[in-house]
Design brief:
20% helix, membrane, Rossmann fold, 655 residues, 17 helices, glycoprotein, transferase, 4-stranded parallel sheet, alpha/beta, 12% strand, 7-stranded mixed sheet
Length: 655
Amino acid sequence: MAFGSHTRLDVRRPQYHSSFCSPSTAVAVFVALALVAVWMVSSTLVAPADFSPFHPTTRPSQSPPSTAPMDRHPPPVNQQQPAQEEDANEPPPVTQPGVDQHTELPDNGSQSQPTDNPPAAAETGTQAELLTETTTESDRGSWSTQAAGSNKDTHKQQQQQQQTAAPSNWKLCNTEAGPDYIPCLDNLQAIRKLRTTKHYEHRERHCPQDPPTCLVPLPEGYTSPIWWPKSRDQIWYNNVPHTKLVEYKGHQNWVKVSGEYLTFPGGGTQFKHGALHYIDFIQEAKKDIAWGKQTRVVLDVGCGVASFGGYLFDRDVLTMSFAPKDEHEAQVQFALERGIPAISAVMGTKRLPFPSRVFDVVHCARCRVPWHIEGGKLLLELDRLLHPGGYFVWSATPVYQKLTEDVEIWEAMSTLTRSMCWEMVNKVKDRVNRVGIAIFRKPTDNSCYEGRSAANPPICGEYDDPDAAWNISLQSCVHRLPTDPAIRGSQWPEEWPLRLEKPPYWLKNSEAGVYGKPAAEDFQADYEHWKQVISNSYMNGLGIDWSAVRNVMDMKAVYGGFAAALRGLKVWVMNVIPIDSPDTLPIIYERGLFGVYHDWCESFSTYPRTYDLLHANHLFSKIKKRYYLDLSKNVNTKPKIYVKAFTLLPDCCCQ
């Protein structure tokens, strides 16, 4: 396959995670959170071999309504839930030849039936459309998973006994992190046992052996978040009641306190006079960057409050911002509350949870990462992530100041980037902000690597898969670039927005896609399917006020068709590829979207109350042998829409 022969599972991690699985816990959580509607809708989806996207059925012709203005406050709460479909609506699965088949028996203990049966007349366009939603990779065909491929690099994972029934009455979590508790980032017991924190080990993921069975409390005075785009400029103080960043960075126009609000003037350490001027300055320094055309997907390292990524939306650019939890108090939480994409992560000892060769530009503005030390191990991780021909934009004091330390760092960086075959295409100073940037370009072929007098850093061995990203240690080596013009990374993606809808050039019809059809046809059918589902059902049949939705997660994204179909709305979508699913995340990036790999039996690396809407298409049935109670903390407490049909709060995602 052209997509990698693996999943993201690295079984070197501690041997306790699968013990989280408990069906009885699922019942308690469903009752506690009134998620019967969610589960029933997601469990009645049908096999793609029978229905859309490959054999579309007749759909209602009504067009989606226009959305309300984006900056008004939420309407009064409506807690009425939509009607449910019965399990009997699901047709029998279709068996495909040459593929391992298994039958999943219904777990009557994990579902609750609705108390009110809807009248027959209610089964109109919305329910009919929901019944055509597809399962994903019910059989994988020729697709391999990284779980199988990673066994050569890890120990075998031991089976764990399932836990006993979890309590049905949930208590609030009692942790030092309080309402900001992230289980895998706030595991103080594990952090205190670390032998060293030299490489930011204390900011990396350390998931607890005993899963928390508690609910994360709300901050005192919490209220429904302000809607986009007004939220980019101000948020409620009580929702993120942290002021240390105001004290540290107020003079740099990061964030200020204004009555009951926190306001964001749009500045940053390197762009005190506004992010848009800085963004345009970068493009002037290198025209080929071409925001919103050649450059669509950006990685922002050490993002602060993510104003850089927030204002890149004005240039039709999607930015994955990340920073460590609490390095600057609540910086990522500020970003998410503003409606700007971000995750809590650190450049420490592990690879970032992204595939190789997917970002058009990587940006670092005073991100405080020591790129030049230890053989350039951290900069080599950026090299792994950049498209061949992609750019690294570095704005830091070594670029434009002449202090002894800055000069030494610049010289070390110059030596390192030359040895990595990066070309410095420009070094220029901004007269307005009085800062400088250096722009480096990754090579497009291997000729420079082969012509180096000293192979330092060395070329990575054949055993080192650049796409292996889940719990994989960093290496001080550089990966060869693809030479076959039909291989991913050998060509720059199509210009945006064409890349959103056009199958990637390396998606071969000679190979089967996730759903079993020729890969490029599979891709296109998936996209057409989700456009119809959203237009005919999600937009007007579920009672969701889309003007109140900004931060969206697709928990099992496959090709990213759901996110692509939402392009016309003012939302962004975090596409998640489970580590034991076919590795389609490179396809998602190729089409100008973004996402991460994740193990849904562990806590996601985000703050509580992050997402307005969670979407899952047959997620639970695929991971029901693994269990973890976590994701209720990830959903904003907006009491109207967040228990609606396809808005999933998967506190239980495993059996």
